[in-house]
């Protein structure tokens, strides 16, 4: 039984940083998904796949895993790349690629 601890990044539909400050402990799948031949649904006999524990800090998640004897790996959060873009950049006279329509 192993788990991964990570801080979720924002989704593609988010422009802000809401729901991104917490840490999640999620168990690794132990058995593969199976496909139901009649309906085509995917299912698994692994019930730990459904469990996601949230913590306020990374240290709390690590303490929980060590207290309960869970092997874990930590995925560090990546900082988003911010790029300053303005509308006026489209009309600069020294553009590398000329503005044409």
Protein described:
The structure is a single chain. By secondary structure, the protein is mainly beta. It is built from 1 helix and 6 strands, in the order E-E-E-E-E-H-E. The strands form 2 sheets. The protein has a 4-stranded mixed β-sheet with strand order 5-2-1-6, covered by helices on one side. A hairpin with a 6-residue loop joins strand 3 and strand 4. The longest helix is centred in the middle third of the chain and has 10 residues, at 58-67. The chain is elongated. The model has no long low-confidence stretch (mean pLDDT 86).
Q: Compute the CA-based radius of gyration.
A: 22 Å
Q: What value does the average pLDDT take?
A: 86
**Series of H and E elements:** EEEEEHE
Task: Give the strand order, joined by hyphens, for the main sheet.
Answer: 5-2-1-6
